Amino acid sequence: MFLRNCRTCLALPRFHNSLAVPLRKNYSTSGPIKDSPRKRRTIFSGIQPTGIPHLGNYLGALSNWVKLQDEGNPQDTFIFSIVGWHALTLPQNPKELAASRRDMLAVMLAIGLDPKRSIIFHQDSNAMHTELAWILSCITPTGKLRRMTSWKTRLAQSRNANDESEVDESLLNAGLLTYPVLQAADILLYRATEVPVGEDQKQHLELSRDIADTFNHTFKGPSPIFPSPAALITPTKRILSLKDPTSKMSKSTPDPTSRILLTDSASQIAAKVRGAVTDSISSGVTYDTVARPGTSNLLSILAACSDEDVQVVAERCEGMSHSALKGQVADAVEALIARPRAEFTRIRADEGYLEQVARDGAAAARDLSARTMEKVRERIGLN
């Protein structure tokens, strides 16, 4: 719910696939800021450095970032960040986190994000994120943070409790409560006008809008410092676990065969799809998310990979066996990720290039954010 110059001889071809769709037709915004061909837009989004993304991450967010970048107006600014500080809200192995940061940067480049077109950087390389987060936390009531769905979910998970009255806040760290303020700082630091979000992140963006409004009203000046960031509702494909089609595909699930990683080989993809849960109904293939969630999930994956309507795909596959359907799904997934997988392998091996992209992106991010923080410090009396 996250310059242009690369001083290296390694050229990165952009990755395009059949998912590309016209931006104006498929993207919409909510909130007071409307898309206009004459209005400069600043679009910000971020992702945690949690290792190699899976198919759900790619179809749900990352591929949309590439579309936004490639189909946006030349005057638009695109900022994509790896939000390392957010990762610290949960225990991390330092060596694994360092490797995951590099992995995620390599993935972002491999799928087609272009450092000559977008600012791509590590959030933790810009200390102004945490500076602004502290300032914003001082005007954000804790009551608002305790009402966040993410906080309530963490509370319930801490005791495996379904009743909020049974959970104990003392078991959780303060970062889990306040990270939505850091998320707001990530967005407002660059005065973003739009943020790509899914339905599960809309509450966090609403908090960012509330915080921006509170700051602007508390520290008045000739003009507001922060715009009210609008939700850029992107077309997302809901990809579920191959082993539990009632849950989203997730890297936190213990069973590695429940998810397809962007670095999986063709044989690994085929094996995971073959082992996917379907059902015992033998009368062909139908799309019914209630009665046949496993089969429906495979149809959804096939439709997402080919950028088709799932009902159209279901009609085409109606007479198939589950074995034949799984074969088509495996082939479609392999066709989708073969190129970014190869690009990842190439880019990940070039540590120097990754470091250069990270340095250039961080420098560009600091340049933009310094202009914001100069205004903020002056407005609150620290300049």
Largest sheet: 3 strands, mixed
Helix content: 40-55%
The first-to-last residue Cα distance is 30 Å
What string, H for helix and E for strand, traces the elements in order?
A: HEEHEHHEHHHHEHEHHHHH
Q: What strand line-up does the widest sheet have?
A: 1-6-5
- Structural class by helix and strand composition: mainly alpha
Look at the structure and give the mean pLDDT: 87
Radius of gyration: 22 Å
Point out poorly predicted stretches: 2-36
What characteristic shape results from the CA principal axes?
A: globular
Tell me the total number of β-strands. Answer: 6
The number of helical elements comes to 14
Strand portion: 5-15%
GO biological process, one term: mitochondrial tryptophanyl-tRNA aminoacylation
Catalytic activity: tRNA(Trp) + L-tryptophan + ATP = L-tryptophyl-tRNA(Trp) + AMP + diphosphate + H(+)
Main location: mitochondrion
Subcellular location: Mitochondrion matrix
Throw out a few tags for this protein:
single chain; 383 residues; mainly alpha; 3-stranded parallel β-sheet; 14 helices; 49% helix; globular
